């Protein structure tokens, strides 16, 4: 059984269909990278999985918990499915450690000592333990994004969703964030990742899901998708992005 099962998911914005009958299964420990042109529904799909968008029809099922929004409330869903956004969503008036501790302590009712110990370990892993008592205004974009990842991980999610987490970063800051996600993949974290970083997608993904106009057009392992895409739409997309040169540049630095 899949850890996450999506069946015939439909999402509309007025008369515009953003997602048109999405079927997708994600296994435990699998890294699925979702690619496609802007406006194809990638981010909307992640937001539906996390309950941030109301769906028109279809079902989302999480193993051991049942149908999302029905058998399990969306508040509880977000404790099992973490999400990191393009914008960092850190509270500017709170220190790094207080930003991290807020969710586990308020929502999960965990003790500060326990959560802070976990937060310290995660901050060390992402190279930011020395910024524990800093404020968001004192951090670079890449540092803020790594803090946002740590904050989500402290909720002990079973699945992580990443929505264009490097899109707002300067090029030199992209690598530090992608390396954190790559390490999570190596540790077996189940992830759905929306990105335009083709080299990173090729490196981290177990499976590529290509979307266009609210539908899944093609799925394959990275090796086949990037070297021999089956559909003309995927071929055109990859040609426009000139993925070969970008992918080579990233992989040489891994």
UniProtKB/TrEMBL annotation:
SMART domains reported for this sequence: AAA
Signal sequence annotation: none
Coiled coil: 105-132
GO MF annotations, alphabetized: ABC-type amino acid transporter activity; ATP binding; ATP hydrolysis activity
GO cellular component: plasma membrane
Alphabetical UniProt keywords: Amino-acid transport, ATP-binding, Coiled coil, Nucleotide-binding, Transport
Superkingdom per UniProt: Bacteria
Subcellular location: Cell inner membrane
Domain ABC transporter: 4-238
Family affiliation: Belongs to the ABC transporter superfamily.
Protein's recorded name: Amino acid ABC transporter ATP-binding protein
């Amino acid at each position: 059984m899949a850890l996450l099962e999506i069946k015939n998911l439909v999402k509309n914005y007025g008369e515009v269909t953003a997602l048109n009958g999405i079927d997708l299964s994600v296994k435990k420990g699998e890294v699925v990278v979702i690619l496609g042109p802007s406006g194809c529904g990638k981010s909307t799909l992640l937001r539906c999985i996390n309950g941030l968008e109301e769906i028109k029809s279809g079902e989302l099922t999480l193993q051991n918990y049942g149908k999302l929004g029905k058998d399990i409330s969306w508040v509880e869903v977000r404790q099992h499915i973490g999400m990191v956004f393009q914008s960092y969503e850190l509270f500017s008036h709170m220190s790094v450690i207080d930003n991290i501790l807020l969710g586990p302590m308020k929502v999960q009712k965990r003790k500060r000592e326990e959560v802070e110990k976990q937060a310290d370990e995660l901050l060390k892993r992402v190279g930011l333990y020395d910024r524990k008592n800093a404020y968001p205004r004192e951090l670079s974009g890449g540092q803020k994004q790594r803090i946002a990842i740590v904050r989500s991980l402290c909720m002990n999610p079973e699945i992580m969703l990443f929505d264009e987490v490097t899109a707002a970063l300067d090029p030199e800051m992209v690598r530090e964030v992608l390396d954190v996600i790559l390490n999570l993949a190596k540790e077996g974290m189940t992830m759905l990742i929306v990105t335009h970083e083709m080299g990173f997608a090729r490196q981290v993904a177990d499976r590529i899901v290509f979307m266009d106009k609210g539908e899944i057009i093609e799925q394959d392992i990275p090796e086949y998708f990037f070297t021999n895409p089956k559909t003309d739409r995927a071929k055109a997309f990859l040609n426009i992005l000139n993925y070969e040169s970008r992918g080579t540049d990233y992989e040489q630095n891994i």
